[in-house]
Amino acid sequence: MSASRELIEQYRSAFTGGDVDALLDCFSFPLQVVTITKDQVSVSSAGTEDWPHVLKELSNTYQRLSVAEPVPLSVEVTEPIAGVAFVRVHWALQRANGDRVYDFKAVYTLARTDSRYRIVAIAHDELPKLRTAIGALQ
What we know:
With about 140 residues, the protein is an alpha+beta fold. It has a single domain (about 5-130), classed as Nuclear Transport Factor 2, Chain: A, CATH 3.10.450.50. The protein is built from four helices and six strands. The protein has helices at about 5-15, 20-25, 50-65, 125-135; strands at about 25-35, 40-45, 70-80, 85-95, 100-115, 115-125. Strands 2-1-6-5-4-3 form a six-stranded mixed sheet. A hairpin with a 2-residue loop joins strand 3 (about 70-80) and strand 4 (about 85-95).
């Protein structure tokens, strides 16, 4: 397994276990976050002060939605230059019984830091789907 795929597996496993510390270990900061909604694209930067809270909140929301695990439906990796990789993942969030909560796509920019890959940027279309799923709970 390539180093970039190993990082994505570590990331998936950390989300499955709700392990925020293991999730944080997947990132390098500052982190660029590109969020795509129906009509807008927003770009923000996250640091070590705010990102742990974001991950904890997301993990708690996944628990409320009864997400048992994120399943990669497809993974595409390109490594355009040494030490940099782009990983495009189509994720399905599934419950323990196999029911799908929702699916979304994310593109991760990885950079080799501390002799291993870490996520330095994320672009995703999850937010509208997450909001819809939360709305369905109420």
